[in-house]
Amino acid sequence: LTTYKEYDYPFIRLPILKQNEFLYETILDDLSQRDIGTIFHECGINPESEIPIEEQDPKPPKDRKQLDEIVFDALELTENERKEVYRTICKIVWNRITRANSVNN
């Protein structure tokens, strides 16, 4: 299953996701049926856990994972790289929240 198509332009090579309308509609329909949670919920990471974010095993909701997999597959990320995406996003957001709270206190 190829999830993207490459277009060559004189100045750039641009990967474009192919449309698989049924798959995309199904995933987006599932997502639209629920409230989108915090970045931590969507990534399946608990920043307040005793286990550091960098060591947690991300467990995103099924519909979120399906949507993310389309992009990850197009980027040809390994399983470990996919986990690092979730961890890194959560770590950046958590660091920002922590800094903001320290300024307000």
Number of strands: 2
Q: Class by helix and strand content?
A: mainly alpha
Biggest sheet overview: 2 strands, antiparallel
Spell out the helices and strands N to C. Answer: EEHHHH
User: How many angstroms does the end-to-end distance come to?
Assistant: 52 Å
| Unreliable segments of 5+ consecutive residues | none
- For the largest beta sheet, what order do the strands appear in spatially? 1-2
| Beta-strand residue percentage | 5-15%
Mean model confidence by pLDDT: 83
Shape: globular
Helical content, roughly? Answer: 40-55%
Give the C-alpha Rg.
Answer: 17 Å
Give the number of helices: 4
Tally of discrete structural domains: 1
Task: Explain how this protein is built.
This protein has 105 residues and is mostly helical. It has one domain (4-104). It is 53% helix and 10% strand. The chain contains four helices and two strands, in the order ββαααα. The chain has helices spanning 21-32, 39-43, 62-74, 79-104; strands spanning 4-8, 13-17. It has a two-stranded antiparallel sheet with strand order 1-2. A hairpin with a 4-residue loop joins strand 1 and strand 2. The longest helix has 26 residues, at 79-104. It is globular and about 50 Å long. The mean pLDDT is 83.
